[in-house]
Amino acid sequence: MGHRHFNGLKTAALFGVMWAVVLGLGWAVGGGTSRFLWLFTLIGLVMTFVGYWNSDKIAIKAMHAYPVTELEAPEMYRIVRELSTVARQPMPRLYISPTRAPNAFATGRNPKNAAVCCTEGILAILDERELRGVLGHELMHVYNRDILTSSVASALAGVITSLAQFLMFFGGGDRRQGGNPLAALAMVILAPIAATLIQLAISRTREYDADEDGAKLTGDPLALASALRKLEQGTSAAPLPQTRELENVSHLMLANPFRGAGLARLFATHPPMSERIKRLEAMAGGGQGFGYGGITRY
Known about the structure:
single chain, about 300 residues, mainly alpha, elongated, transmembrane helix
């Protein structure tokens, strides 16, 4: 487990920073009290629950995906059934999205209510070994409860943005207390940016975990590395339109579905493909006890 790069600890630390920003903004809005903080936190909790409970429906609708039977997608079914059996988890629902943009995602609040979706584009460019690597990665997102993690991060980012907007339009605290207006303005501008960057950092950290755990599940890290190389080329050639609906679910996808360059890379939901591939190749070179049954904690 030495190659895990302390991803769980990183995620916890990032959440801690995000909560610190929430508390700081709540204190500023409340003028040194917590009277507004609890209101916005309650709103955030409701948003988290709604997003978490309906995560599968939201993503599937955004990608216009349709359910497939074993007769319609025998290769997908065979691979997912095999990997689910190895992980001792229930069989998820399978979907295909009618787009030539190559990508895949898994969603659902738990393994019993999970869905895995591949686009027509990814099914066209991957061989069976590479597809197996991709599906192993997606299943590990479900088994690692990454949907809950991303839902909470998204809700906290929303709370921070709402608090900042409230502070901007209505002011924070008692003006008679002589608060620093420049500090308040800086917080209004910087807090939502910080929240977004932290949310993206959490998403990237979970991608590294899913790469590593998926490679252990399949026993073939080089298969996923090969798939990622094809995806990097494919998503550049056929990016998805950057609509609000797709932006809300882009963090679920195996590869960044949008065309990004320059500053856009800073706000990408996924780590660089080159780094992901490098880590997978290091796993293969290290021979970390791969093979079926490598994932035993479920």
